[in-house]
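Review form for a predicted model. The reviewer records the input and the model, then writes brief findings.
Reviewer: anonymous (R2)
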Amino acid sequence: MTSDLRPVHVIGGGLAGSEASWALANAGIPVVLHEMRPVRGTDAHQTDGLAELVCSNSFRSDDHEANAVGVLHEELRRCGSLILAAGDAHKVPAGSALAVDRDGFSAHVQARLEAHPLVTIERGEVAGLPPAEWDSVIVATGPLTSPSLAEAVRDRTGADALAFFDAIAPIVHTESINFDVAWFQSRYDKPGPGGTGKDYINCPLDQAQYEAFIQALLDGEKMDFREWEATTPYFDGCMPIEVMASRGLDTLRYGPMKPVGLTDPRTGRRAHAVVQLRQDNALASLFNMVGFQTKLRHGEQVRVFRTIPGLENAEFARLGGLHRNTFINSPSLLDASLRLKVEPRLRFAGQITGVEGYVESSAIGLLAGRFAAAERLGRQPEFPPRTTALGALLAHITGEANPETFQPMNVNFGLFPPPDEAETVTVNGKRRKLKGVDRKKVQAARALADIDLWLGRAPRAAAE
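Model under review:
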């Protein structure tokens, strides 16, 4: 296979870069894939193999009927994903999850790319922004982007547009919050830009509840920093909540849990302390816990945070964290086809765009490759339907997330449009609105039917 078209340059040979290269090459576009290893190593990688899995060998749930990650798996399979093909070829027993043999997986991806006649792999660091003569570039350098390239991106986009350290607050599905306890109100009823004066969800704690919560934070099991993160100092804006709690019993009451300007409608009085949640997406289906970045282990977070009144049955779209990462503020910087607004020859893909997880990174790589291929062929990019996992993830990072609170996110059903309000389910002979797993199943089935239509084929039968 040959092509007279100019190549697209892909920087980064991780999952996103490999997936983008595969999508381009299979569309008939020549690709130069740049991977700096082994010329320059990273603190996390152990080999020079493409698509090396660093933190885990799990791609998480493979359930495409009721799990958003599983839906994304299936959408990628139907799109011809190299990453999912390699995962399926090298899977190991892991229950309902898709886990893989790391070495076999990486070798599979590398062998397929090396064998493709339109893919050239070049080893060496791309220092700084790519040369001007590279008129189409996909930057897929991941959370450990080389310092010179990261600094060049920061200079091009602005000092506040690139983050090097995540301070991730947990995100809660709005429908799981108990509004018999919680209420909507902005502090002093002041509306922010585009707000109403009722822009936050408030969860009140009395003195005994607050003191028990502080003790649970202090006693909870914490995650350790990885070796290369350990020397990174905390910034004032991303102090873990348990570290703040350790500085004194009332520290949080005068910080993110201050109750001033808020009145509990049940009592007409000010609570002893208040946990506030702020809207996190345009659908208002997700709210993040303000100031609750944490190093508590995930299981501990669920246990401790469900002691907060109003969050007794909270379902979390994302749990909190604090770790070193490099990502851009995609909602403010990227257009709908993942191009940098100030320099459209540059597209971004993978974790550097603010998605979290192997599968999500691969998904954005696949889309970046498809969009760059369409552009090279003189066509308009075709965006995946908003109702699909691919479309929901793309919409989130290119405009629907709040730029002021943007942090890396896994795919979850909170990013999908809700089912039609008219849809119901029969339980014990009675009709009721969709919720829980029934709601997820409807969203999953709709996503897979719509991805098939987007790909130009008839939707598959539900049993397939």
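Findings: The two ends are 33 Å apart (CA to CA).
Further findings: The chain has two domains: 8-164+326-415, 170-319.
Recommendation: see findings above.
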